[in-house]
Amino acid sequence: MRNRLPNKTLVALLAAMPAIACSADPGVQSAQATVTQSGEDAAFYMAAIEGVQGPDGGRLGDRTLEELMDEFGVPGVSVAVIHDFEIHWAQGYGVADVETGLMVDTETMFQAASISKPVSAMAALRAVQDGLFSLDDDINDVLESWELDGGEFTRDRPVTPRSLMSHVSGLGDGFGFPGYDPTDPLPTTVQILDGHELSNVGPVFMERPPMTFMEYSGGGVTVMQLAIADARGRNFADIMRDDVLEPIGMVNSSFAQPITPEDDRNAARAHDDNGRSMGPKWHVYPEQAAAGLWTTPTDLARFAIEVQKSAVGRSNRVLSRAMVQEMLSPVGVGGYAVGLAVARLGEGWYFSHGGGNWGFRCTLLAHKVKGYGVVVMTNGRQGGALTGEIARRIQAAYQWDSLAEPVPRS
């Protein structure tokens, strides 16, 4: 394997574990950790990512986690690690809100940003499973409160739920969502799609025929948000709560926009490149399916585990084994399945998604069949570099096959 902790480094870390565990800086480490296996076992792996890395630790390996948070101006980080189809450990680090001094714990809610998309895709697939529509229906046959004008681009092939959730629909909106100040009036979903004056993004529009190329489209996922709500005849946040969040046990998660005052009591603040407050605590995202989930790494790990277990026939709390394969099988153009990016890393196949909202960055990465993964969420605009480094350290410490070399032919 490459880029993993050498055996001598692992032995040294294990031997030093009591000292490492006791010497953690209380200013960085939160007061709460969740450990589902041996405390010593979890503490070993936590120390492996918190400390300076071994000689194969990469360009950021000579810094501790605390030093990296300072370097990238990220006040708070929360991590959950999946091992053997279970949450092995979860831990919060640093400050959730620099204005109040609230510390990060494992129940602190962060904005999931674009990781909202695969969670929403699970609800769409649940609607397919319930017979409300099919993945390959013309989206205009599903929509009731709006119509997509496909023009000549859809003469031979319609835009479908499958193509919308895998970013191959032909839509060319080309924008992310900046969110809204909490005091701003919010557009409806239809107004967002039309580019109404209340919306801070342009209208969605067709740029090419479906299934021509992959072009990431938050607007396409917003079309799917409206389709799910129209098909169910209910509020989107309530659908997500009842069809996905509660069945999986995502107890600290909500698609409510804005976040409720009760949940906001332990919600992180958005911070700029230097870890400073940017005025409003957070932005509001009426584009709920694309960017509106408030959650924790522990809850997103529960989501990933449900996908993993459903795929091997060990759970069906939301989707059947056959249906969840739609989330794990790329559609044939680009690297996306329904809702998730799927790719080979090293000698393994992984599903993943990243996210970036105003002042928040996060990542989810999990193995398709081996039952391991990681979720990292931050409340700083430069958190992307930090989430990537933490994920790399976890892969090295747990010796994932993402870092493995092919077995040579004998």
Q: What is the end-to-end distance? A: 18 Å
Q: What is the number of strand segments?
A: 10
How many structural domains does the protein architecture include?
1
User: Which residues form runs of ≥5 with pLDDT under 50?
Assistant: 1-38
CATH architecture: 3-Layer(aba) Sandwich
Percent helix, as a range, is 25-40%
**Highest-level CATH class:** Alpha Beta
Written description of the protein model:
The longest helix has 15 residues, at 218-232. The protein starts with 6 loop residues before the first helix and ends in a 13-residue tail after the last helix. Residues 1-38 have low confidence and may be disordered. The chain is built from 15 helices and 10 strands. The strands form 2 sheets. Strands 1, 2, 3, 4, 7, 8, 9 and 10 form an 8-stranded antiparallel β-sheet that branches. Strands 5-6 form a two-stranded antiparallel sheet. The chain has helices at 7-15, 17-22, 39-50, 65-71, 116-129, 139-142, 161-165, 189-194, 218-232, 236-248, 261-264, 288-291, 297-311, 321-324, 383-397, and strands spanning 29-35, 76-83, 86-97, 102-103, 110-111, 294-295, 341-345, 348-357, 360-367, 373-378. Strand 3 (86-97) and strand 4 form a beta hairpin. 32% of the residues lie in helices and 15% in strands. The radius of gyration is 21 Å and the shape is globular. The protein has one domain (110-403): Beta-lactamase, CATH 3.40.710.10. By secondary structure, the chain is an alpha+beta fold.
